[in-house]
């Protein structure tokens, strides 16, 4: 009763908040805002255009359809209303400052086609010539899991994303939690999604319905309701009202382009289409059925539905020019990369499993600069034999391989690794500290690595090392494992990740005991600035001056080889500066190898 009294008659505080982000108050910032609001006992509402909603309810916030230039009243009532209004104002302003436009506005290329063309909004630039194929999905029911089991599976997947857009998965996870507040079965979830989409219909946030439908699809799939899309084997341009974000990643190679009728440039689907480099447009008008090729010129922002033979020839010529440029890059992917001054910069690959190792080989990588072993077995604990066979298959692809021992903790979790709940998990048990907390797990992994190498030269590195004693302890542990299982490790070099700033102050001591260094720029940057890299409101400059200063200092004082395996290694702007700093070993994702080599050749 007292809590109800406070909410009804307690002090009320109001502030006007202005939406300044170009993409509006969409899913990701709204998810963060609603989560922050739930931390307060006060009754909190967002009011605009005569409509008032619970600001702790993500679905309700999205229903306001707040676009750039809009404003709303944030009303807090209750005993902690003052604290709530101050904290939420700061959160909102930080979110608006952090949010960049979700879409780009490319300069449209000139186009001179004889036939009439339909103008659309460019999602992702490119050209495609192929027949249209209308999206058609069929659902097959093979009920195998309960709703609760499916939800748990989906939540784990979204909590540990390994795709291109981590923030999308994290925002969807928040959205799922909101839906689960009123859905305890598949039927209730279907109704909740239906109601949410109806609420968003006609608002600026209507494109976010794809995120709701995507969550529903994920749960249905986890329960055994399989959606089958019989894509053509021959080249086609996909036409659909919209696509689910998860469907973008499963588009076949035969899909040459995408036309969407009811999406938006700020949708998560659009973000993923750009990440995949698929020529895509938004065209509101429906298209006539046709088995003949159309021209999707997403460089010019048009679709030519009934092209003349000359139009087809002109489009194919454009397409050929683009292909030649890409082919030239691919042809040179196996060539070593030298700067203009003749300095060789080795380009290695970051891999997670056998498939990505194979992709790295095909991409022209000169070796594996980082094998992330924590991603090999994400859902179930592997036994020794399973690990050994997986490592053997990966090692077989390259002569130079660097394996990082298990690195969980922080934002990386495995269901079979029991870690304590910590106030600051990024500063707790993770990386090399697992040698102390989970020795049996590390022992089994090291044994599998040593046995899989079978005398082949191999580098093993320890993550999150902060002191020389930590490195020596981990190396001693590894030697004891080798002795216990009679493994010859004369072929093994032991190194460490440079992620903790304390390492920079003890380079002389580390030079005496390590065989090599690998700079993890992502973690090093977050620890230099005391900002968690997954923080929802605080952002890190990936090219901060402090980070470059730390890298340069490490290279200058290291007496052993230094590589860099963070996202910075593939940053087109940063590559030149890294090379000039003295970093001559870069490890990047397989798809970035060819482009990274080309950038080096221009340094």
Automatic annotation (TrEMBL):
Gene Ontology BP terms: phosphoenolpyruvate-dependent sugar phosphotransferase system
Cofactor(s), by name: Mg(2+)
Pfam family, one: PEP-utilizers
This protein's UniProt keywords: Kinase, Magnesium, Metal-binding, Pyruvate, Transferase
HPr domain sequence ranges: 10-99
Coiled coil: none
InterPro entries on file: HPr-like, HPr-like_sf, PEP-util_enz_mobile_dom, PEP-utilizing_PTS_enzyme, PEP_util_C, Phosphohistidine_dom_sf, PtsI_HPr-bd_sf, Pyrv/PenolPyrv_kinase-like_dom
EC number: 2.7.3.9
UniProt key word Magnesium: yes
PROSITE patterns the record matches: PTS_HPR_DOM
Membrane-spanning parts: none
Leader sequence segment: none
Major enzyme class: transferase
One function term, GO molecular function aspect: phosphoenolpyruvate-protein phosphotransferase activity
Similarity field: Belongs to the PEP-utilizing enzyme family.
Stated name of the protein: Phosphoenolpyruvate-protein phosphotransferase of PTS system
Taxonomic classification: unclassified sequences, metagenomes, ecological metagenomes
């Amino acid at each position: 009763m007292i809590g109800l009294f406070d909410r009804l008659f307690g002090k009320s505080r109001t502030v006007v908040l202005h939406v300044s982000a170009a993409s509006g108050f969409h899913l990701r910032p709204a998810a963060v805002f609603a989560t922050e609001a739930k931390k307060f006992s006060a009754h909190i509402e967002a009011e605009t255009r005569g409509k008032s909603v619970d600001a702790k309810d993500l679905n309700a916030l999205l229903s306001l359809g707040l676009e750039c230039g809009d404003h709303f009243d944030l009303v807090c009532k209750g005993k902690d209303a003052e604290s709530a209004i101050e904290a939420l104002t700061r959160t909102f302003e930080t979110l608006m400052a952090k949010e960049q436009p979700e879409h780009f506005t490319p300069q449209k290329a000139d186009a001179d086609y004889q036939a009439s063309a339909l103008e659309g909004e460019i999602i992702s630039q490119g050209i495609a010539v192929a027949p249209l194929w209308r999206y058609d999905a069929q659902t097959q029911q093979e009920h195998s899991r309960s709703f609760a089991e499916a939800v748990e599976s989906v939540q784990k997947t979204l909590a540990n994303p390994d795709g291109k857009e981590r923030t999308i998965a994290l925002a969807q996870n928040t959205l799922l939690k909101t839906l689960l507040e009123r859905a305890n079965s598949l039927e209730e979830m279907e109704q909740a999604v239906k109601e949410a989409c109806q609420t968003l219909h006609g608002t600026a946030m209507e494109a976010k319905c794809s995120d709701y439908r995507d969550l529903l699809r994920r749960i249905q799939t986890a329960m055994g309701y399989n959606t089958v899309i019989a894509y053509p084997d021959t080249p086609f341009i996909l036409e659909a009202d919209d696509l689910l974000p998860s469907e973008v990643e499963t588009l076949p190679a035969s899909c040459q382009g995408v036309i969407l009728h009811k999406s938006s440039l700020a949708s998560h689907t659009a973000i993923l289409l750009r990440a995949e480099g698929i020529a895509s447009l938004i065209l509101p008008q429906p298209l006539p059925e046709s088995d003949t090729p159309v021209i999707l010129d997403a460089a010019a922002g048009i679709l030519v539905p009934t092209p003349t033979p000359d139009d087809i020839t002109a489009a194919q010529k454009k397409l050929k020019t683009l292909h030649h440029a890409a082919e030239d890059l691919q042809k040179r992917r196996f060539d070593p990369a030298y700067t203009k001054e003749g300095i060789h910069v080795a380009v290695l690959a970051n891999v997670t499993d056998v498939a990505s190792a194979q992709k790295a080989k095909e991409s022209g990588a000169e070796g594996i600069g980082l094998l992330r072993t924590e991603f090999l077995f994400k859902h179930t604990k592997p036994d020794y034999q399973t690990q050994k066979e997986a490592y053997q298959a990966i090692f077989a692809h390259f002569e130079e391989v660097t394996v990082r021992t298990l690195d969980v903790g922080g934002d990386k979790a495995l269901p079979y690794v029991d870690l304590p709940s910590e106030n600051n998990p990024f500063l707790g048990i993770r990386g090399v500290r697992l040698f102390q907390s989970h020795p049996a797990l590390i022992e089994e992994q090291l044994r599998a690595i040593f046995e899989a190498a079978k005398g082949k030269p191999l580098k093993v590195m320890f993550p999150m090392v902060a002191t020389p004693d930590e490195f020596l302890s981990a190396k001693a542990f590894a030697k004891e494992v080798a002795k216990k299982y009679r493994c010859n490790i004369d072929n093994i070099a032991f190194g460490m990740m440079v992620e903790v700033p304390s390492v920079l102050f003890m380079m002389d001591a580390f030079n005496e005991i390590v065989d090599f260094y690998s700079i993890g720029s992502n973690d090093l940057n977050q620890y230099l600035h005391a900002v968690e890299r997954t923080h929802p409101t605080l952002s890190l400059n990936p090219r901060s001056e402090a980070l470059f200063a730390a890298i340069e200092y490490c290279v200058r004082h290291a007496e052993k080889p230094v590589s860099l395996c963070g996202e910075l290694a593939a940053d087109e702007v940063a590559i030149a500066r890294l090379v000039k700093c003295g970093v001559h070993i870069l490890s990047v994702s397989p798809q970035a190898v060819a482009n990274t080599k080309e950038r080096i050749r221009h340094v």
